[in-house]
Specification:
single chain, 266 residues, mainly beta, Acetoacetate decarboxylase-like, 14-stranded mixed β-sheet
Length: 266
């Protein structure tokens, strides 16, 4: 009997790209708030969501340096279970609930991409980097302190598609409300059967469920972000018209569930 949570199923069940949940994550985050054209923000929303009229095109760009494990000390295989990602969250509303919609997300690891597709995150492979902080003092250490600048970048097929910076000014006790909105995604798997290409086998609006969420050492400061035009991408349609604060913090959570909001049909 073949075993595994995802393909490829195998006799021992070790070849699958994604292990069985629960999945545990820890990471360092750079988050930069910005305002895009409200019409561009509304244009990227799926059925079931509507534009947040109070947001005026408010969005977030996030770079994250992640470490992952499931139940078998996967974090001891860092080549497979460390990864970095960049994604955008756009303020939206589901019924009467303020939410964050993820139209675009990029990762540098196939296992992370597989987990994302299961959740509904539209992950694509890219090269993602961000400044790391180290305890030993050095001009390269990037201490978590007032005045330190952290940077992130993302490139797709060798073309720069996102760049951001956060200059720390002060530590804050709480995350901003925009970062606490529940994230909404769309699980979408098309059919290859002739005559049914426009009838996806899965098409549902989902809300992320993050258990045991924790954050630590949150700093706020000035943010900068650019989303340049890149061939084969549409991220630049959400390019910032103005930029707000930037944040750096560490976070952790566990994922073992999601909430189905709507079956969107074909």
């Amino acid at each position: 009997m073949l075993k595994g949570y995802t393909l490829p199923l195998s006799p021992e069940g070790e070849a699958n790209i994604v292990p069985t949940p629960p999945w545990h994550y820890s990471g360092d985050v750079l988050a930069i708030e910005f305002w895009t054209d409200p019409q561009a923000a509304a244009a990227c929303l799926p059925p079931g969501l509507k534009a947040d009229q109070c947001a005026d095109g408010h969005a977030l760009g996030l770079f994250v340096d992640w470490q992952f494990t499931a139940q078998d000390d996967e974090f001891l295989d860092p080549a497979k279970y460390q990864y970095r990602e960049f994604y955008v969250l756009v303020d939206a509303v589901w019924r009467d609930t303020p939410v964050a919609w993820c139209p675009y997300i990029y990762v540098d690891n196939d296992a992370a991409m597989g987990r994302g597709w299961i959740q509904g995150y539209p992950k694509k492979l890219a090269s993602v980097f961000q400044t790391r902080s180290f305890a030993a003092a050095s001009p390269a250490a990037a201490p978590i302190a007032a005045g330190t600048t952290f940077a992130g970048s993302m490139s797709v097929h060798g073309r720069r598609a996102a760049a951001g910076r956060v200059t720390l000014r002060k530590q804050v006790p709480e995350l901003p409300a925009a970062l606490l909105r529940p994230t909404v995604n769309r699980r979408y798997f098309p059919r290859l059967t002739a005559g049914q290409h426009d009838q996806p086998s899965v098409n549902e609006l989902t809300m992320a469920v993050n258990d045991d969420f924790k954050f630590a050492n949150c700093w706020v400061g000035e943010g900068k972000i650019a989303l340049p035009k890149t061939a084969g991408e549409e991220l630049d349609a959400l390019a910032p018209m103005r930029v707000g604060s930037g944040y750096r913090f560490s976070m952790s959570c566990t994922i073992k569930d999601l909430k189905i909001l709507d079956g969107l049909g074909s």
